Amino acid sequence: MKLLWIDDDWRFNRFRYEQDRISDTGWEVDFAISICEAVDKLNSQSYQALFLDQQFPYDDDSHIDSRQELDIWAGNIIYAWLFSSDSDLENAGASVRGCLERLKNEYPPPHEDNKRLPVLILSSYEKNKNYSSGRGKPVVNHYAKPLDVDDLLLFLSGVEREFD
Predict the structure, then answer these.
(1) Pairing mode, if any, of strands 140-144 and 49-53?
(2) Which residue has the higher pLDDT, 32 or 65?
């Protein structure tokens, strides 16, 4: 089983313990730290689960000004691209909606297997109401940071049961 974990904190050596514990249960853990890296992975590889932070850069070099609007909406942008749900960005500004359009125009669509990924939103913020489920999209679960690795493992064991 393969997990994609999208979070720019990875580059600061965070989540190594969680990665080791998850790997010990047989999961392969792959990280992405930007929108562009995540989209590249989601359109070229098949995953069985997605951990999604809410705030990270558009590309690997954009952390010079990390408070830009795209960073704050990054998780929503990935979610909207992955599940073809533009409505999840209706409260966003024009630059965010423009970013989604750019992804649709410049990147291949997500790998077919990834279009129904179970999603776990990992955030330091309260539950984000901009993620929706239904209409062919998976149920979205939210976990607050700091993370409890046992909660992550519980989520993944549920995913494993779905594949049995």
Answers:
(1) unpaired
(2) 32
Secondary structure class of 140 (helix, strand, coil): strand
Q: Which residue has the tokens 């966003």?
A: 92
What pLDDT, in 10s, does the model give residues 65-79?
A: 444 556 678 888 999
The answer to whether the Cα torsion of 61, 65, 66, 72 is positive or negative is: negative
- Cα–Cα distances (Å) from 143 to 11, 37, 38, 127, 150, in that order, read 21, 23, 20, 8, 12
pTM of the model: 0.87
Quickly tell me which residue has 């239904």 as its tokens: 134
- Which pair of structure tokens corresponds to residue 22? 């998850």
- Name residue 69's amino acid: E
CATH number, domain at 90? 3.40.50.2300
Domain count, the chain: 1
| 97-123 confidence digits (pLDDT tens) | 888 888 999 999 999 999 989 999 888
Q: Alpha-carbon dihedral of residues 130, 59, 13, 160, nearest 10 degrees?
A: 50
Torsion sign (Cα): 94, 75, 59, 63: positive
